[in-house]
Predict the structure.
Amino acid sequence: MNLEFKKDILFRELKQDILSGVFPPGHRFPPELEFAKQKGVSFQTMRSALGMLCSSGLIARIPGKGTFVLDSSAFSRRKENGTKTILLLFPEYCGTPGESPLFDRELMLSVMNEAYLRGYKMIPGDQKHDTEDLLKRFQKGEISGIIWDRLLPEKRDLATVLHENGVPQVLVNRKIEGAPSISCDYPAALRQAGRFLRGIGHQEILLIDFLPNHEVYREREQTLREIFLCEENRNMGDFILSLPQSDPSNWYRIAKTWQQRPQITAMIVSSIHFPAFQKFVEEFQVAVPRELSVVVWGESDLFSRKSPQGYTILTEPRRAVGVKAVEQLLHILNGEPVSEEPISLDGELILRKGCALPRTTKGKD
């Protein structure tokens, strides 16, 4: 039994009205709330249907001016002449795939392969330098849709405007209203690692991570409270060491925390900070896992599942995320409904010799 949502019915009706000339090219629709009342539907239903019309190239939303019907015959010609291209935008991209970080290459390879299997090609880009005239490029048929990886805060307004104008978009590890988003289930991954360490006897565990904003910090804080069953008044600074992404003194901050908190017997370390953590271990001659059990979260060129270091790894499903992102983008391109609920994919805990029972406290055998 096929169920049809109200937004799909409204989309089909409005599409037929446009193609039949009831709403000719250049016609301006009423404001969304007023239009919804005229059609006897909710505001959200109207907004969703208009979004589908935008994605189909039948209307355009111009901020501050309104929503207008496009020339559908011109759009059809543009679609026929345009290339089937997915633009994958990273926060930073050096211009050469082989020189990109492993974290980016994993997603890039996945999107490229999945796009190829679906008859599309993928081109990578940089959010800081490759976002000029994206709406025009879409309207000219140069790109079919966009996948944003870790959308930069300063690009949120641009992504919102593009969404309102019908540009198919999927976000990885970030969210904007109305666009599909795919990510690793970070809270579940952190709970998995934390509960494993607690399960083998570690009572004091330190998370070393890059937390770019308060929202991410609060998410990590809440997850750690669940792991440790902490009271709300417990200082979560005892469990979280938030470090900048690149700072030569990060290793010293780790060392200082290690000295100040002798009860810490395990650490979960973001791969971003693995070089700093390595220097701390070397400088202080920390015995892993006798003195300190370690889980490295995420993979990088310096540390991956193929690296000789014996640390346990908590991986992020970058390849699975890429497959799902292409799948969702093509649903939009084909005019199919997609869920606005974020899609979260599980990570994987790969156990190696970097973790053991907490046998000693520091300075004692």
